[in-house]
Amino acid sequence: MNYNEQLLKINEAGLMRKLKAVEPLEDASCYFQGQKMLNLASNDYLGLATDEALKQAFIQQFESNEAWLSFGASSSRLLTGNNKLYDEVEELLRTNYKAEAALFFNSGYHANMGILPALTDKGDLILSDKLCHASIIDGIRLSKADHQRFRHLDYDQLNALLEKKRSHYNRVFIVVESVFSMDGDLVDLHGLIALKEKYNCLLYVDEAHAVGVLGETGLGLCEQENVTEQIDLLVGTMGKAYASVGAFAIMNHSLKELLVNKARTLIYTTALPPVNMAWTKFIIERMPEMSSNRDQLNKLYAYMQKALAAKGYKVHRSHIMPVMAGANKVAVQLSEHLRKEGFLVFPIRPPTVPANTARLRLSLTADLQLNDLERLMRFIPDNKKQSNEM
Prior knowledge:
This protein is α/β, with parallel strands linked by helices and 390 residues long. The protein folds into 2 domains: 123 residues, Alpha-Beta Complex (Aspartate Aminotransferase, domain 1); 232 residues, Type I PLP-dependent aspartate aminotransferase-like (Major domain) (Aspartate Aminotransferase, domain 2, 3-Layer(aba) Sandwich). Helices cover 40% and strands 17% of the residues. The protein is built from 15 helices and 14 strands. The strands form 3 sheets. It has a 7-stranded mixed beta sheet, sandwiched between helices. It has a 4-stranded mixed beta sheet with strand order 1-2-3-12. A 3-stranded antiparallel beta sheet has the order 11-14-13. Helix 6 links the parallel strand 5 and strand 6. Helix 4 runs parallel beside helix 12. The C terminus is likely disordered.
């Protein structure tokens, strides 16, 4: 099948994607295709990326610090790209998490693509939740370890797999997300820790959609559940609630040293520019003070959970709200309808989600107001009344 035939097949399946130009504004709005809309597609969960006061405070610091006045790293971290801000950011993270070590990557994708291939080998086993993110799946595929998925949040099946297979492997990694990116449901950390300890496994938790949002100081679900010290590898991203770029992993000294020497996505990529690391440090230092943002977000998703449930949708108490459509065509039509009404929402279709589970992913941010969501709900159809016509 040539490339044009592949494109035709993608289009006929209702799965054609295109890059979109979106101009974010303050107050949770944006410009898209010449129209001002309420932005419900952003992962800027605390509304920090468009916070003008925050930006101006950073610029004042930036202009007075010559060490930050660089917009290019020009080398990998293992050559000349490891400016002192990397050390300061990693020390901040290590201290915040009360951990032995932290290691910074260029993105969540770099972290998830690099960690498991570096830490596993033949004779090891990776057991991952079926709905783990593509970056985790791709990292697992690069690993030499055996791999098996367990049904989403099905810890009875995970226990059965461990009971059957654990004795046949050297190391076993259990890999999950804390807040799942497309469904918004939460992992049972205490149950997983019990299994990890029972079968002597390593627990890898991707907190990409939880850091900044959950926990007393925004460290994620692990902080909220008071289990941070029991997680072997905790991955967080800066590109969502932290409104920056990059990612980090929290671990012990030995794992950090091994990753510095073996993680190809760390070794063979140009470091982030000092200006990016300066903004990251600036945000990390202020994250514990963002409790009012977190409280506002909690109020918003408490309202949406009730409002969507009243219309027949199954949702979780989370800032990620899936409005299930099923068929690709229905998801596309509903998203187009909402955009006409001034709401920026995009359809989420396979392969991002399983077949026949196309949906709208409503992404709530703390700069939204309750009346914004009340207005949105007037245009969300009852689940039982959905059809192929809008």
